[in-house]
Hints:
- By secondary structure, this protein is mostly helical.
- The protein is 65% helix and 3% strand.
- α4 crosses α6 and α7 (140-150) packs across α8 (173-183).
- It has one domain.
- The radius of gyration is 28 Å and the shape is elongated.
- It has nine helices and two strands; from the N terminus they run ααβαααααβαα.
- It has a two-stranded parallel sheet with strand order 1-2.
Amino acid sequence: MKLIVKSVIAGLLLATTSQMAVAQNAAPGTLVAGLGVADLEGAVANSNAYKTAQQQRPVTYKAQIDQAEARRKAIAAQLQPMVDKFTKDRQAAAPNQAALQQQAQQIQQVQQSGEQELQRIIQPVAYSEAYVQEQIEDKLDQAVKNAMAQKKISLLLNPQVVLAMNNNAYNLTTDVTNQLNTLIPSAQLVPPQGWEPRQIREARAAQAQQGAAGQQPAAPATTATQPTGR
Length: 230
């Protein structure tokens, strides 16, 4: 979500040198017209669509969540005696380094395969969260523009670049959330068959583009012909 939100922020920072000078030189307590601050990640997280999805997901994906938790406990139970033996053997007066290395490799293999298995089990849950976020973030740009127009804001700042505010009238976060609630009252929880998060889609597209560029035939070399002297 952070990558998408950052791109929206970059497209909406409409600051000019003169506007920044006005904001910096304003007297304490003075409200600078046209200036606003918004936490876009917070606006998304507080939207009705996002919060409703967060409540529904544990119910819809209960089977996957329960399965992942059961496997996590089973993997932990498998690893514990291996770790205990490794610790005991390492504390011996003359530890067998070759055997310790072999034990460490076995523990690492179990951990890695366990993590991969858990990721596969929980992937539908992670994809659901990414799908909901994308649906909301697709409306974020318009929500910000609507909120800025409604409050007559021409300069929108990220709270991270603001040292302090003495007037909450600058805060446009709730206004952005309200606009999101209007633009997308609810989000679809379960992604379509075969859907993948935007980051994966963009990575695949980039790889395909690089592959296509690498397969393009090279231009034939041309040999210059010198004119025949008489």
